Amino acid sequence: MSKAYKITLALLVLLLVFLTWLEANEPQELNWSPSYAAVDKIPLGTKVLFENLKEQDLDLKEVRVPPFEFLEDTTISGTYFFLNNSLQPDKNELKKILKWVSRGNTAFFIAENFSPELLDTLDLEMETLVPKKGISSKPLFNLKNPVLRNSKPYLFDRETYQQVFVIPDSLPKQVLGVTQLQNGSVEMSDPRVNFLRDTVGKGFVYLHSAPKTFSNYFMLQENNSEYIEKVLAYLPAQRTFYWDHYYKTGKSFYTSPLFVILNNKALRWAYYFVIIGSLLFIIFEGKRKQRSIPVVKPLLNQTLDFTRTIAGLYLDREDYKGITSKKIALFLDYVRSSYRVSTTEVNDALLERIAAMSGNDFKEVKDLWQLMTRLEKQEAVSKQELLQLNKAIAAFKVK
After folding, report:
1. Which of 76, 38, 15, 95 shows the shortest CA–CA distance to 250?
2. Which residues contact 91 (CB under 8 A, 6 or more apart)?
3. What is the rounded CA–CA span in Å between residue 358 and residue 393?
4. Alpha helices in the chain (DSSP H)
5. Arithmetic mean of pLDDT, 193-211
6. Which structural domains are found in the chain, ordered by start?
7. What whole-number distance in Å separates Cα of residue 337 and Cα of residue 350?
8. What's the whole-model pTM score?
9. Which of 18, 182, 259, 368 could form a disulfide with 136 if both were Cys (CB 3.0 to 4.6 A apart)?
């Protein structure tokens, strides 16, 4: 290795270390991606809500399979809780959920975007609130019931878009909650529906169009957790609460071994720099510096092919007696070489020693030796007897 090469390599390593240090000391950006996973502590995760529910007097169960598969069990009853930025069950799955609800159960759907099948089934439409000139797009939330309504609406203190429901006047829907964009006043001048309930058979379906209100960020602001308490107060008491993990943008667990590296900014950039450095090394130092060395193919080991050929000849001639004698001879050689014992004179003491060293039962070892002795004395051996011997020897070696 030349001196110039060593200096270049050292400079490259120092550069990578310096760039990694710079990236590691950069302030970490807050991750605002919608996750709604129960394990995520990011602003739009739901760890706060999930942990609070676990502390309540509630039979909380976690569901990690699709609803279509989960509801195959007809004995399930309670409240099925779906929370994500988008819920798109297909037609068959939605039909199964609603059939389960009609038997007296409850489905709670919370999302910004619902599948067209769900909206059509409940005769609903959705639209997005658009801020007017000079009006903030931070949404306000409140409950419709005078007993639950707060004197001051709850604020999601971040610019975002807000979906609302459009309900035909001719359809009976129970409006439970309203929202509007902040307009500088603590009062709602133009409330729009974002939380409603509909009856399906003997059960109820709840729809809420603001999953951000169930996030860590919203619940940890001022007294916003009261809003979630009041929303969930509509759910039946003393019923099993099924938390859906399947319909989640964020994962509840991670299978990639690179997750730890790529999830940490400093480690992520160090990983990228190593890859870039390796590519540069390959480009500039990947040239051949000597003639290519010819590949010498090793001699083929044809012992196995020869053995198969000989075995095939014995089988074609149906010489089971000859095969038996050779298998017994090979097995005795295996015993002598593996356990350092002599098989010239076989007695119970020797068999007990062989059984102890091989981990086999003494009776099984004795039966094997009796079988080999009998087959050796026979003038002819059948195919079934040969298979019995082969099976007994294989069982001995497995232990």
Report:
1. 38
2. 117
3. 12
4. 3-24, 47-55, 67-70, 91-102, 116-121, 216-219, 225-232, 259-263, 265-285, 303-317, 320-339, 348-358, 362-377, 383-398
5. 95
6. 47-244 (3.40.50), 303-398 (no CATH)
7. 15
8. 0.60
9. 182
